[in-house]
Automatic annotation (TrEMBL):
Protein family according to the UniProt entry: Belongs to the pseudouridine-5'-phosphate glycosidase family.
Protein name, entry field: Pseudouridine-5'-phosphate glycosidase
Protein species of origin: Streptococcus danieliae
Cofactor(s) of this protein: Mn(2+)
Catalytic activity: D-ribose 5-phosphate + uracil = psi-UMP + H2O
Positions contributing to substrate binding: 86, 106, 140-142
Binding site for Mn(2+): 138
GO terms for cellular component: cytoplasm
Role summary: Catalyzes the reversible cleavage of pseudouridine 5'-phosphate (PsiMP) to ribose 5-phosphate and uracil. Functions biologically in the cleavage direction, as part of a pseudouridine degradation pathway.
Cofactor binding note: Binds 1 Mn(2+) ion per subunit.
The protein's Enzyme Commission number: 4.2.1.70
Amino acid sequence: MKQYLDIAPEVAQALAEGKPVVALESTIISHGMPYPQNVEMAQTVEAIIREEGAVPATIAIMDGKYKIGLSAADLERLATEKDVAKVSRRDLALILAQKKIGATTVATTMIGAHLAGIPYFVTGGIGGVHRGYEETMDVSADLEELAQTPVTVICAGAKSILDLPRTLEYLETKGIPVLGYQTDVLPAFYTSKSLYKLNSRVESVEEIAQMDKVSHELGLSAGSLVVNPIPTEHELDAAYIDEIIAQAVVEAEKAGITGKDMTPFLLGKIVELTGGESLKANIQLVYNNAKVGARIAKAYSELN
Ligand code: PSU
Ligand code: MN
């Protein structure tokens, strides 16, 4: 597998020296946000991670390689090109073999990070069990990846385009720790709180790093989730955004959207229906996750 890795020199050096590195996904750039906010977000997230003293490693598939650490030109390509594939686990081999350009989801960013030896990955929200899954069987491959790949994912919970309580049940079944960072309840992406109580709460980045160390030493080989609430000054009104999401879900059904197109469709619809308000919140929560994720990665590197 390593023959397919193309690790940027700065990232390789940081890893060799045991310095903190934070992985970032690229589907959020190519399929999760409109241009030009997507590329601006991608650059700013990297800058925040650097300010915190860690090295960012945005991951994507390009030229038959799993690229770990991208240039500004690579970010621009992912943000603007029309034929960027959304690459989940099942797509990985084909897109590499065809030497196409592909954006990595949470699942494939975890795979790449793990291959490169990066234990931390920052994003906005993960995929999960979709509403109406009883009919569609739409459960994101992100959850299966979390069950088998030992990377800690820092996110702002999941948005209620998903069935949040069932997503939590699935995570429990698969043995995936969900740590509330200074929260008792699952954050719901656009809002800092949901109705769903978590099993575990942590107060500090050091506690998270210590748990990760034990988990790796035990060889548990599962990932974990750190759920970090959106700062309250940036959150949206719960009733307002729930209504918008419900409307987006109905429109997806009407339009006959299925499979990998579902999440990007819903994200786009929500941006449209909120007149861009949801995008602002989305960007701010990613920045907040980058700050916390870099601090956890630093605490972890100081333990080793
Ligand atoms: N949630 C977001 N923004 C995103 C995604 C999810 O708020 O960009 C992306 C992530 O890359 C995630 C993927 O891994 O969607 C999940 O897609 P699916 O539901 O098709 O598994
Ligand atoms: Mn799906």
